[in-house]
Every structure is written in structure tokens, then in C-alpha cells.
Structure prediction request, 896 residues.
Amino acid sequence: MKIDPLEKVRLNKRIEQAHDRMMGDDVDGAREMFREILLQTPEYPAALHGMGVLCVGRGEGEEAERWLRQAIAADAENALAWNDLGEALRMLGRGDEAIAAYSHALQLAPDFLSALNNLAVALAGKGELEEAKRCLRQAMELDPTDPHPHNNLGVILESEGQVAEALLCYEKAVKYKHDFEEARQNYADLLQRNPGRLMQAMGRLLDDAQSLE
Amino acid sequence: MTPLQQAYLQKLRATADANAAFFELNMPQHKMLLDEAPTASVDISDQGDLVIRYADGESRRITTDILEMEGRIEQFADLQDRPQILAFHNMRKFYENPSHGDHQVFHYSKLDAEYPNRATRHFAKHYPDNSGLNRYPSFGQKEIPLLIVFGSRLGWHLPRLLAEYKIRHLIVIETDVDAFRLSVFFQDYVLLSRLAMEQGTDLIFIVQSDVEKIARSMTAAMLKSEGLPQFFIHGASMFYALDDAEMVASIRTTIVDTLWELFFGMGYFDDELITIRHTFDNLRQRFPVFTRPNAIKPDAVAFIVGSGPSLDGLIPLLRQYGDRAVIFSCGTAISILHKMGIKPDFHIEKERQDIVTDILVKSISNDMEFLKGINFIGLSPVYSEVFRMFDRCGMIVKAADTMGALLEVDGMPSGVILSGQPTVTNTAIDYTLCAGFKNIYLFGVDMGSKDKEKHHSQHTVYVNLLPEEDHLKKLLAHQPSNDIVVPGNFGGEAHANKILAFARRMMGFMVGGYPDAKVYNLNDGAMIEHTIPLLPADFDERWAGGCDKRATVEAVMNTFEAGEFDLEVLQRILLERIDAFIAQVEAIVSEPQDSLSNVLDKMIAIHWMTLGPSNINDPCALVFRGTAARLLSMAYNAVTIIKDQDEALAKAEWDFANLVECLHEARGEVVKNIQIALATAEQ
Prediction:
């Protein structure tokens, strides 16, 4: 789709505003903006994609899939849209298709952290834990400070009974994102179930605190 | 004198000496101005208070001067109030040309209408009103592509401006030589030039009291290597260190007017396409080409006849002496000669449009018999039918022309490729001088007139009415107004328009190149440099008896010879160069652009592909120069007034794509029109 660059700048600014609304919980406002853009420029990939993301956020899996497939038809090189399509498919319980979508996103953008993380989650859901762990470690190499792969790896390791390693993963997730509720909860639950690990964990926390000083 | 006074004065002198040495080395023309001492003097108190005492009795404390300049620099920082030159087209006043209008019938393409139309349409679509636009061009708070400083004063402001802003080109104009002389005692120009170099600023001084010469120096400065495209004058910032508002206004106006000339002669693709097609056709038909300069005997006499108002009074002289000289009729002058029953030996045309055949026929009232026995000389772009209207003809390859440049690349000596611009009388003078005539008389070559309204002979088709439906009439109705005052040939003043003023200057320049030739100006019009004013009443006194007309006519014909040109090779060279040119533009355009500064860099780079010293006479530079300049200037005007930086960059992206598309379509037109010219042979 060939779009006048000036038109594109203006459309993208409106797309940004729509995303801001979405982030600010004004989902209806965002949806209205995307609709207006699509009325003006049907098949504008960023707007189709935005609609898809909005539907994923609302848990509307089928709608999300429809918008995201249109977005991909308009711009097949959009790795973000492939990743979000994976999310929609995972939401619909179509794990294999989701894995294919994430993998496609990674083909287009091999360093795409979210896609790696999502792929790992989808693989774990299918019981392919080793492959999932490989994806998460790859994500950690790309960005050691991203808390999500640490948390997800923690969950897998915990399920495998590797409590000490899982605790370390949760600690890192919380360290890199203090308000990461899910990781904090995982950490607290695991410690509660393994009180014997509490002192060691406290020791590590104190070491960290001292190193900060 | 106290030691402080002595030391300080010594310091001032040392600064002046260093500056003089610097100017001697880098700008000798300015050093000459420093050979005289300034008329002002400097007083220094025993405490070090400095006061300048001017020749007119006024005085000024130097600290006052510094503080005043500081105030002006502070004022200059306000973008809203910063004075700018506004010239050329205003993008907010869009109008759309469906084609070349009345002129479209004479063109083989309309790219020069279509692509600018697309640009204006695009702009109008996105900016239907002034919202989102700045009132004046803006380059950001600190970036100034072109800064013109009026006045050197004591020079304090110059390093301040250089250090404060990112200036690409800084032109300092000083109209008062004495003020410049004084400034060299205070401003360290050596350091200033180093600072400019460090900042990447091209620093130019114009010290000149003649406003017209200032404008010409400006033009030259912008045209020099690495200079700015002329359209950058639009939006140029100005810093006033001078208080003479009238002088500044006059310089401003003259600069804008003079820059018009930069556009004049740049040509445009649709026009160059005519030259490509016609010249290929003319070469294919093997019309003899001017190849033998300096072949005319020294006693030969040429009468060059133009259609200026003086011609009416010079007809008797032409009749009386015409049998002992070779008469060259120029363009519409043939109509007067026809009316007067004077048959010229040669008729000269330079215009490329095919309507020239109709004009010629109308000029002689369909009396085709009149053309019998007249020889024809045409510039290479002239339509081949015009050559064929005459029994014998010769073709002069035109300089500053795509095909002239191509033929030069192919091995034709530059000495026989003639400028012949901008009027057909220029063509005649260029040719006769180059062919070797040493005695040339100008009849009706007025280049301006005493009477503002009277620019042509009363007998020309310019004045006489033609049928209402005639294209020609519409075309000729657009005569530029006479608004330039120039010195008269016999004293007093004459009125010229921009074209005539330019033609006059070119003529003087050309005649000046042949000091052994005598060119007599018999016309009560404008003075032409290096020509000899000759009152008609004194003609007889100067007349040396003339020459053998018939022999001289044959000698003129012998300056032309049938050429052997491999048209396939010429076509190949041209297309190869066009392809390389387009590829280079595409490479420039595809560079990343994150700022307006990047966009300006690209514009400058593309512009200099057509005007840089190394390619100024390249066939490709010539074919695309005007069109590229026009599209770039439109892009420049648009992107510099768009407020939002992302939008400005996107607009530039669109405009660059528009230019590239235009170049590709132009290439297609070149191929098509050469094929048409060459295919005619097979019919």
C-alpha cells in the first residue's frame, strides 16, 4: 500500500493518540479513532493493527484475529502484528497456530523480545519445556533486564521442582521491575511453600542492598 | 602620549596590518581598498577611553558601538522579528497550470507544467489554509542557511553571529568603503575567517557602493563552487548593522531582482526536449554546421539588422550602403526589410518553436519569392522546416544547450559552439565576430529605447495587429515592461526591460572579447559596452568603402560544412549520462533525513549536480537544470514554512519522489523524441 508520506505522518500521529487513549483505559475513544482512520484510509495497516491490539486487550479473540489478519494482509512484514496475532490465537486456545505466528514474527525480527517470551509461554503450554526455556534464555541474553523472561523461566523451573533456581529467577524479575505484581506473588508463594529458603533469600536481598550502598 | 595610549594605538595598527596581509592573500580586491587610510580617526584618553571621530565632525564612543551591536544581536535572536528576504513564489498562493498554456502547442511534452502542478496540488491538499504553517521560512532557532549582514561597522557583531548560529553562508555587505577601512583596525578578520572555517561557514565580503554591483557580487557568490542554490535567497536572514534604511531597502530589492536573472537562462526540460529533437533532426538532415571560425577577410563588412525602433530612421543608410556589405537580418527584422524592399543576404533565427515557420511567412506577407536568394543561418535547436525554407543554410551549434554540450563531448571544438543569447541580434553578433568580421554595423539593435513604450520598429509584427485567433499575437502580447534605466548610446538614458538589459550586457561582453573588431552602434538606444557609438550623420565619414558583397557571402557560407555525426553514438552518450544522473539523484534522495538540515543538504547536493563547476556544461546538467531547480525551490519553500518537523520531512520525501519520477518520465520523453527525429528519415 503506497501512502503519501505526509498523509502517513498525520495518520501515525492519530494512531499514537489512539494508542494513548487505549493505554489510558479509554478503549471506546481509541476504537472510535481507529475506525475514523480506517474510514479515511481503509486498509491502513497501523489502524488495522491497532484495532487488533485493542481487541486482544479486551479479550475479544475472534475479532482480534480478524483485524490482525487484515493488518498482516496489508503489511506482511509487520512483526508486531504477527506477534499480536499469536496472542489472539493463544487466547482462542489455538496453541499451534499461535506458535507459528510468534515464529513468523521472530523470522521477521529475530531480536523481538516479546515474541520470544510469548513463544516460550505458548511452548510451555504445550509441554515443550526445554524449547520454552531455550527461548527465554535467548530473550535474557538479548536484554538481561527484561523481567518477563525471568518470571516465566521461574514458573517453568518451579514446575520442574527446581525451587532454588526458580526463586533466583523471580528475584531478578522483581529486581528489574519492582512493581511486577505477578512475579512478586510467584516469589512470595514459592517462599511460603519453602520457608527453609527464606534466610538464604533474605541474605541475597541484604547483599543486594549493600551493593547498592 | 602615555604608554597606554601608545601601546593601544600600536595594537590597533598591528590588527590593521595583519588584516591587510590577510586580505592581500585571500581577497586582493579588498586589500586594494585598504591602501587608503580611513577618514575617521581614533582618540584614546589616558585612561583608555576610545572615541572615533568621523570626518563629518560626529564622534562615537566605541563602547557605545559595542553595546548597540549587542542589543541588535539580542533582537536578532527573536525568530518572529528576524528580518528575512522573501522572494520567488509563495506556496500559499497556489495556482495550477494545466500545461504551458498558450505555449503548450510549441512543446513536445508538459513535464514542466505537470510536476510543479503535482507539487502545488499536494501542498494545497495538505495545507488548505495557513494552519500548520509558519508565516515566513523557518530553519529552527539556530540554523541559518544564508545570513546577509548589512554593514561591517567595527566588526564586533560578526564573530558573535558566527559563534551563536549555525550559518552556512555569511555575506557581509558594506556600502561605505571608509567604514570598512575603519573596521580593519578593530576587527581581527584573520581570526574571524578561522572561526568561520571552524563553524563550516562560507564567509564572503562585498565592499561596494554601487547597489547593482552588490547584487551581481551576491549572484556570483551564490553561484560559486559550494554556494547555495539561488532559491535559498528566499528566507535569507538579514542583520542590520547599518542605519541607512533606504540603502538597505534598495539593496534588498536589487538582490531579488538580480536573482531573477539566475533563473533566466536556466532553461527547463520541455524546452530542452525541443532542442534535442530538433538538433537530432537537423543533424540527420546534414545541414552544414559552423566549423570554420576566423575565416572572413579583414575588410569584410557586416550590417546586422535588428527590429529596434532606431531601424526606421536607418533604412536610408541601409539602402545606400547595403550593396557593399553583407546584410544579416535578425528574426522579425525580416518583415521590415521585406516592407522596405531590401533583401538581406542572410536571415538568422534562434527560436526553436515550430511556429517560427508561420512567423516568417506572415512576416513577409506570404511572399515566398522574397526568400529566394536569401541564405539562412539558424541555431541548432531551430525547427528543420525553417532551414528548408531557404535555398542555402548553415547551422550554428548552440552553447549552454543540451545538444551543444553533447556535441562538445563528442569532440566538437568549443570555439565554434556559440552562446548567441538571449536575443537573435546576440546570435548575429556572436557569429559575425567568431567568423572573423572586423567591421560590424548595428542597425535597429537598440537594446533599449528613449521612449518607454517604443521597444520595436513600427513595422514589426510585434506592433502590427495580427488576427485575433493567432497564437503568435497572444505570445507576443506578453512583452516584458520597460523598467530598467541604462545609459543611452548617444548620451542620456534609455529604457530597457530585463531581457534587453541582459542582452545588452552579453553583447558588450562578447564584443569585448574581440578587441580588433570594430562594432559601430548607430542606434539611439542603449549604450553597448565596447561598441563605438556612431551617429547616422557621421556614417559617411567612417565608411571605408565596404567589401565585395558576393565574395563575402560565399566566404560566410564557407564557414559552414556538412558534418559527419554518428547519431546512434550521440543518443547512447546522452542516455548513459541521463541514467547516471538519475541514479545519482536517487542515491542522494535515499540518504536518511532526520532534520531539515539534512533536507537542505540534499537540495544543495542535487542542485550542484546541475550547476557545479565540473558539470555546468554537462548535457545532463543542462537538460535537467531548470526543472530540478524549480521543483527543488518549490520543495524548499514548502518545507521551510511547515511548522511540524515530521511533516516537513515527509513533505520533503514526497517532493524528492516527485522529482525522481519527473526525471524518469523525462528520460522516456527523450527516448521517444529522439526516435521520432530519427524515424523521420525512414518515411
In short: Chain A touches chain B at residues 4-10, 13 (CB under 8 Å). The two ends of chain A are 55 Å apart (CA to CA).
